[in-house]
Amino acid sequence: MHSKIRVVAVSYLNTKPMTYAFEQGAMTDRMQLEFKYPSLLADELISGRANIGLVPVAMIPSIPNARVLSDYCIATEGEVASVCIFSEVPMNEIEEIVLDYQSRSSVALTKILLQHHWKHHPQLSAAQPGYEDEVGGNKAALIIGDRALMYRSRYKYIYDLGLTWKEMTGLPFVFAAWVANIDLDEYFITAFNQSIKDSLIDLEAIIKLHPFPQYDLNTYYKKNISYVLNEDKRRAIALFLKLIKEII
After folding, report:
1. Is 133 inside any structural domain?
2. Which range of residues forms the domain containing residue 111?
3. Residue 146 belongs to domain with CATH number
4. Among 100, 200, 207, 212, which residue is least crowded by beta carbons within 10 Å?
């Protein structure tokens, strides 16, 4: 009897439409799903502790034998709402940005946009838990995930990274993709993709399971987040990885 394939993902609201079927029992005979911070997911695949992960795109080159497994991803066609720089002053007056400790792709994207779009070079600081409350004066913060949705009404200036990338490149942006570090049989890949497709059909059920009064989840799931990994998104991934090499 083969051991189950260990799969890791984040437990943010934006992943629920892809993990719902798995959490309801789909493919439990073949895989075991666990949840981690996005910044930790790649480490699980790099070490071999997991074989499939919903990995921040910035980390794909670091994973041995990495291959994009699925036709689905976490992406946006414009405004993403949950990956933003929050500030009390305009971008050109920001002197420091505290960078979210939970994300590597979003941190890399921030650096790219500062260099190529905003052409502004504030001090960049690593965040510690609770840093969201440090925003004030000329100090801003990159906040991602559910916490970003909660903080949208709190600050005067919101710089949405998905929308800014679209303005700069004309492309969507992919934050995370399902990546494997081993060869998997076609039956598994087909079942994996079908389970995600089934999950995406049940958005109303997912919204009822995860009430979130701070932001309308119908808008979030149907407008802000885009789940199908198409050719434009693959081109966006390639451009993003190219630009990362220029800032590191």
Report:
1. yes
2. 83-169
3. 3.40.190.10
4. 212
The pTM of this model reads 0.94
Reference 177, options 25, 79, 86, 63; nearest CA is: 63
- Measuring CA to CA, how many Å separate 111 from each of 59, 79, 104, 173, 208? 15, 18, 11, 15, 36
Note the pLDDT tens digit of each residue in 167-187.
999 999 999 999 999 999 999
Q: How many domains in the chain?
A: 2
pLDDT digit string, tens, across residues 87-109: 999 999 999 999 987 778 899 99
